[in-house]
Amino acid sequence: MKPKPFAKWMVGLSSTVFIGLAIGQLSVSSNGQSTTPVSTGDTYSNETTFPSQPTQGDSYDDEESDDDGGYYDDNDDEGWSEDDSSGFSQPSGNSDGRSSHSK
Amino acid sequence: MERQLYSMHNTIRFVTENQIPEEEWQEIERFFSYVDREWSRFAEASEVNRLNRLRIGETLSISLPLARLLKRSIRYFEQTEHYFSPFLLEQQQANGYRDSFPFHYATESERVGPPEITPFILEGLEVTRVGGGAIDLGGIGKGAAAMMVAQRLRKERRRGLIEAGGDVVVWSDETPWKIGITHPHTEEEIAEISLRQGAVATSNRIYRSWRVGERVNHHLLDGKTGRPIETPLIQVTASAPQLYEAEVMTKLAFQMTEQERQEKLFKWFPNGRLLLLDASGEIISEKKGECALWTG
To answer: ipTM for the complex?
Structure first.
């Protein structure tokens, strides 16, 4: 944990808002209702692609990333945008998996 | 072939056409160990709790998987008009949910309002607190971990299923997977959904509930008020292309009327489907533009 100068924080806040506006991620409101679909894989922007290696200027701590199994390399949106479901039906009694709330 | 591990207080099942090699399995175990250590609000030294302890203006560098999850959670928080909120830890604690389950009795404490703005901003891996509110990832953390591993496994496998405590993500280029939906009281399967690729998540207000005096509280909070949701629904199942989306959809569905679900939820998640079980035992099936009493 480290304190951050206020000026830098303001720059960060401004750039975040700007990026959000630029890629159209912020909701568009009409009559108080958001009409923008939540982004899925096919429209996912580069904004959310994180570098797999620390880049110049990042205060990246190698020690903190050693134990996460390396699962951060991939954009996990890629390829998960299809609507492939059959819809709900009567149980057949031989399901491969079960969906329920965890206890 | 099936392998299992225990993480996030749940059994995690991995079903693939060939056995996951030992080296890769060890990577998966390390990843879930990292998730248990760093994403939990019950682990004092976790990254989530270190973020929660930040004061306004302070910054913390976090691990990349958590940064990705936090970024996505913030986006859902903003785009769903705060119906979905990952920032309700203080409200959940005031509700009596301070310890890890199982517990049966709790006391409430003084409630504070939910955050009106996103409490954190991200720049790469750096997170800066800009407002009040504390992170409780809840079900989206479980879904995120499963999705991250599914994305990796899918690269070299045509067919796979990951079941993480009732959240399921599947992929297959041929035969669809069949996922059963269970009743919260009887635990018998009441429905099934077939899909080659996608995810299914279920939430109910039965399992994670506890007594506060004569009243029963549950863990599903209204994102706008921070209070337990009052709803005739007892269980919601959502299917969507991604597990993150299915998780968020279940939380939204509990808070919305049928009209709101059509006007908002299915605009935000146009590929989603819902199966809603109410206290009278009636089951409703919904998707974009359709709502019907479900009879199978």
So the answer is: 0.85
Contact B106, B93 (CB under 8 A): no
Q: Do A2 and B178 touch (CB under 8 A)?
A: no
Q: What is the DSSP pairing of strand B177-182 with strand A97-99?
A: parallel
As a whole number of angstroms, the distance between CA B3 and CA B105 comes to 35
Contact B79 A96 (CB under 8 A): no
List B276's β-bridge partners, or say none.
B236, B284
d(CA B39, CA B42): 9
Q: Are residues B192 and A4, on separate chains, in Cβ contact within 8 Å?
A: no
pLDDT in tens, B220-274: 999 999 999 999 999 999 999 999 999 999 999 999 999 999 999 999 999 999 9
Residues 6+ apart with CB under 8 A from B180: A91, A95, A97, A98, A99, B189, B191, B192
Residues of B in contact with A64 (CB under 8 A): 61-63
Half-sphere exposure of B235 (CA within 13 A, CB side): 25
> Which residue ranges form the domains of chain B, and what is each CATH number?
2-129 (3.10.520.10), 168-293 (3.10.520.10)
User: Which of B61, B2, B70, B64 is closest to B31 using CA atoms?
Assistant: B64
